[in-house]
Design brief:
Largest sheet: none
Number of strands: 0
Strand content: under 5%
Radius of gyration: 21 Å
Length: about 325
């Protein structure tokens, strides 16, 4: 599939936000500061990634089961390697921990694979029907504590609405609606941000993940109402984010083509830095350095792997040409 600069820019900016969000998450626990900036970033970070995932799922010529299988294979490999590393090197995971519960950031691989399989169902319905149905299921799921992180089921259910929005974007002419209400969405984003800054503790840290049941509250209805609000806020923030991204080549474009490897590796680097307790004492300096090391390290790994693939491809092409010439010369 031909790469689109706009979507590479989106993915490039988002992966920077993902690494920043996870850095803030772990450093807030390490240094003892609050999770408020992480909450703010999370309102659009993963929803936008899910939207883009849905958009490209619709355009893909590969069958959903093939794409799902690829994601599940990557998950199995990454889960195995990272679990061994966390268990026997860092010592932060028990050897008997359920292997079907994804390690830290790996939930996204399982969720993507499951969402690809759900395409067979999504295709059968128009946008309005399947979107409303997915929202109802996502909201009701919070009342069942049995729906949890096992196989990333809770995340898959709550991710479905944004995936469908991306998947059906062209069908409902979403771009026209976004352009029509661009100013209103921007104003809403500013208002919501200001309100959030003055009421940072309104949403619990666990609310933002959309994977926990409502029973983290004394009254489950409170969790239900907050999940509705999170969906509304995430929709406004995500659309606003999509509006400000350039359609031309930028410094983020190349980065957007390497997001999978960066996503898979940055969490391991972060966990290593935190676990080995080699962080500076100053919280601000420590957080900034951690971000730079995690981002820089994961980008270096991603582009190294990309370079190796290109070299391997060139060698294969050269061998093919040489073989062809040799065959022709013998005729």
């Amino acid at each position: 599939m031909k790469r689109i600069l706009y979507f590479d820019n989106i993915k490039g900016v988002l992966i920077l936000c993902v690494v920043l969000g996870h850095t803030l998450n772990l450093c807030s626990d390490y240094y003892g500061f609050n999770h408020n900036l992480f909450k703010l970033i999370t309102f659009f970070m993963m929803p936008a990634f899910l939207f883009v995932t849905g958009y490209f799922a619709k355009k893909s010529h590969k069958p959903p089961i093939v794409r799902a299988g690829k994601m599940f294979i990557i998950f199995i490999i990454a889960q195995t390697i990272i679990t061994l590393y966390y268990t026997y090197v860092l010592g932060i995971v028990s050897p008997d921990k359920n292997p079907l519960i994804p390690r830290y950031t790996l939930w996204f691989l399982l969720t993507c694979g499951s969402l690809y399989l759900l395409e067979y169902l999504i295709r059968k319905f128009n946008f309005k029907t399947i979107f409303i149905l997915s929202l109802i299921v996502a909201l009701i799921s919070g009342f069942f504590s049995e729906i949890n992180n096992f196989l990333s089921i809770s995340r898959t259910i709550t991710s479905l609405p944004m995936f469908i929005l991306g998947y059906k974007a062209n069908e409902i002419n979403l771009k026209d609606y976004i352009n029509k209400y661009r100013k209103l969405i921007f104003i809403l984003t500013i208002i919501i941000t200001i309100v959030f800054l003055f009421n940072m503790d309104f949403f619990l840290f666990k609310d933002i993940y959309l994977k926990y049941s409502y029973y983290i509250y004394n009254n489950p209805l409170e969790g239900f109402i907050k999940r509705i609000l999170i969906y509304l806020v995430s929709a406004v923030f995500t659309i606003s984010f999509l509006n400000i991204i350039s359609k031309n080549k930028t410094i983020f474009t190349k980065l957007g083509s390497q997001t999978l490897i960066i996503y898979l590796t940055h969490g391991v680097i972060l966990k290593t830095l935190i676990t080995l307790n080699i962080m500076p004492e100053n919280a601000i300096i420590g957080t900034i350095l951690t971000y730079i090391i995690a981002l820089g390290g994961s980008i270096a790994i991603a582009f190294t792997i990309s370079k190796i693939k290109k070299i391997g491809g060139l060698i294969h092409v050269k061998k093919y040409i040489f073989t062809k010439r040799e065959a022709v010369s013998q005729v």
